[in-house]
Amino acid sequence: MKEINANMAGTVLNVLVNKGEGVSPGQLVVVLESMKMEIPIESTVEGTVTDIKVGIGDFVNEGDTLVILT
Amino acid sequence: MRKILIANRGEIAGRIIRTCNEMGIESIAVYSDADSELPYVKQATKAFRIGEPPVMKSYLNVNKLLEIALKEKVDGIHPGYGFLSENSTFAKKVEESGIRFIGPSWQVIDAMGDKIQARKTMKNAGVPIVPGTVEPISDLEEACRVANEIGYPIMLKASSGGGGIGMVRCDDEPSLKKAFVSTQQRAKAYFGSDLMFIEKYIAGARHIEMQIFGDGQGNIVHLFERDCSIQRRNQKVIEESPSPFLNETIRNEMSEAAIKAARAVSYSNAGTVEFIVAEDGQFYFLEMNTRLQVEHPVTEMVTGLDLVRWQIEVASGKPLTLLQNEIAQKGHSMEFRLYAEDPATFLPSPGKLVTLHFPEMVGVRVDGGYEAGNQVSPFYDPMIAKIIVSDSNRKGCLLKAKAFFNDFQLTGIKCNSPLFEQILNDDDFQKGNYTTAFLTEKQLMKKS
């Protein structure tokens, strides 16, 4: 199991993957907004999405899990 | 006016409270749950909670703001900058509630907020505008045709954009094709309109703006320029006045153009006419900001005036107290925007300010929004404070600024003060030799 975490505190602006979807390294999975700036969160690994821990509008802290992959 | 509500937060709320105190006016502050500990909440005569941290639930909640304003029987509402400051619907509602909106009329805000209409108005008034479209563009095919006519590189911009959002430089047709739809979608999401326009990209240019002031009684003056060319992501980082680039001839021409622009819309209250100035000294109208600017202190330091006081007086119906020939630009002033961000990547760095120490120096003004122990929240812009350094000349400013940042201390989060030290040591910056591409081209923090 691999996790994609938030690299800073912010609000979830968009989730770009669905459960069961395969992702590759460098693929954009979530967009956060922090201090009026969009922060793209990319996957660093290859895997399949098993769980999405956040929804649009959610507030996340640095280190919070966004997406879980296998 | 005896009582003013400030529909804003942080440093600008504190700045407005200071002038209210000096004028014997009561100040009413509002705060979201994220800001309850900030200094401005304690500095105001009274403060009211307006909601949860997200802006839609707090600082953009028009009904809640008006409810507090009416309950407190305020005479005026100062919108600060950002948030509702350029929202004509808000300005109109404030006036319709029998409260003075401290800013221009809602009609002028509306007219200048539409960047395409603003370009048309200025062109008709004889103010030079950046070569480009005068009609809105709504699809890619038309955008490509127009861009080919103008010639690349071009700037693709949202008609309702602002604050550096909704604009992108395109160097050729493939990059325009790539950027068009996403920029349009962002404009729709942020500003509610997907109308776009195209301007010629002017290489090696500076961003220089003129401060103007009108009283709605026929008097309009300018308060000289601010050079705002040091930018990252199309957002300002350092501003100074006078501009090291302008000579007397160009300064006079730009002042005249700014006054002409203000007269074209019968401007009242504080406003800024932004120009892009090419290498050859040709200048073009970019847009008009219908509010107090973040960088207004630079103008206050070289003119010796209090712009917030002027705003309140004009909104109370008083005429301007000075004639153009009574306003002088003396000495030099430079503003540094201290941001909570990585100084090399410019990525946000929200979190707790563990220590925060501003050295006290003669000629250095700190307009701050936070103190040690405060959280810099991810919900709002990253500005921690503005450091305004003034001296009789530019060289004196540079030396003073260096001494300031040498003793400055901030821990807990990242901030851009190391970048300021690099800029101050840069040979070109010291000579005043810089354009809007300065930070992108120099890559100062990445070298060291």
Please summarize what this structure is.
The complex is a heterodimer of chains A (70) and B (448). By secondary structure, chain A is mainly β.
What does this structure look like?
With 70 residues, chain A is an all-beta fold. Helix content of chain A is 0%, strand content 54%. Chain A has no helices and eight strands. In chain A, the strands form two sheets. Chain A has a four-stranded antiparallel β-sheet, with no helix packed on it. In chain A, strands 5-4-2-7 form a four-stranded antiparallel β-sheet, with no helix packed on it. In chain A, strand 4 and strand 5 form a beta hairpin. Chain A starts with a strand and ends with a strand. The model of chain A has no long low-confidence stretch (mean pLDDT 94). In chain B, helix 7 crosses helix 8 and helix 12 packs antiparallel against helix 13. By secondary structure, chain B is of the alpha+beta class. In chain B, the strands form five sheets. An eight-stranded antiparallel β-sheet of chain B has the order 13-12-9-10-11-14-19-17, sandwiched between helices. Chain B is globular. In chain B, a hairpin with a 2-residue loop joins strand 10 and strand 11. At the A-B interface, loops of A face loops of B.
